[in-house]
Every structure is written in structure tokens, then in C-alpha cells.
Amino acid sequence: MQATNVIFLRKAKMELIAVSIYFLFWLFGFLFLYRIPSCNGELGARGGYPPISVIIPARNEERSLPSLLSSLHNQTLKPDEIIVVDDNSEDATAEVADKGGAKVIHAKALPEGWHGKAWACWTGAKEAQGEILVFLASVQPDGLLRSGVHTWRKKASFLFSLITK
User: Fold this and answer.
1) Separation CA 36–CA 154 (nearest Å)
2) What is the rounded distance in angstroms from the CA atom of residue 144 to the CA atom of residue 164?
């Protein structure tokens, strides 16, 4: 009889510990999720954001660049500079970028061990003046810059990345 009481007390103690741990995890989760910042700045307002540079590595992108550049110019949070790194294009990529209001940089010869897009991104990053660097390769929806920069501004992340097809 006494052995069953001991077993019952041990089970009750283990259940109490399990419930306590569950409650602590729930409490910590609530406290951390409560601190996630919300993006509630006014649309179109600069809102104290630091300078933003958008870097676009481009090779033979004369057909897709106009819509991307137009989209960037129509963002509610406009970048301070748009840099297109022409990665030895065989079409009119550089001319289209220039007409679209972007600063055009021509990538130098690819160093050994580097790949094209990574080298173009590095080349653009070295020329960028912004405190925040955004790398794009396709048309992005409005508000992406605001969301990404807001995340960075609140120190929730030091790297914001979105990979698209």
C-alpha cells in the first residue's frame, strides 16, 4: 500500500514539474512575442529611416529592368540610391538602367573563386552610400523596403533576405 502511495506521489510530482515547465515556456513565449515591433509608420513618410541603397546585379536584363525600376520609384519608402551593376551584359541593360534613373556600375573581370552574381553584389556594395543595402533581382511588391528596413531598424535582425524565383 505504501509503495503505491510513493509511486502516486512521484507521478504527481513529475506532472507538476511538467506543467510548471510548460507554463514557463508559455510565459517566456508570450513575453518575447509581445515585444515584436509593429510597422506602424505613416505611409510615404521617411520616418527617420537611415539611407537605403538598392543594388541590382544585372546581366542581360533589359526587358525586366524597366518594371523593377518603376516599382522602386513607386515604393512608399523610396531608396536613396539605386545601383545597377551591369555584369557584362550583351544587350542594352546599362542604357535601360541609366534611363530608369539608376546609377550604373560595370563589373570588372571576375576574380578567381568568385561567381557572377556574388561578384556583382560585392561590386555594388562597395559603391553604395546607404547605411542599409537591399539586393534585388526581380520585381518586388510595394512595402517590401519598408518592412525590411523597419525590421532592421528595430534591431530584430541585422540581415533581411527575400529570395524570389
Assistant:
1) 9
2) 13
Q: Whole-prediction pTM value?
A: 0.60
Q: Which of 153, 160, 159, 132 is nearest to 48 (CA)?
A: 153
Select 52-153's CATH number: 3.30.450.40, 2.20.25.10, 3.90.550.10, 2.40.50.140.
3.90.550.10
Q: Which residues contact 99 (CB under 8 A, 6 or more apart)?
A: none
- Distance (Å) of CA 3 to CA 29, 50, 115: 39, 69, 70
Domain ranges (residues) in the chain = 1-35, 52-153
Q: Supply 48's cell numbers.
A: 527617420
Mean of per-residue pLDDT scores for the chain: 79
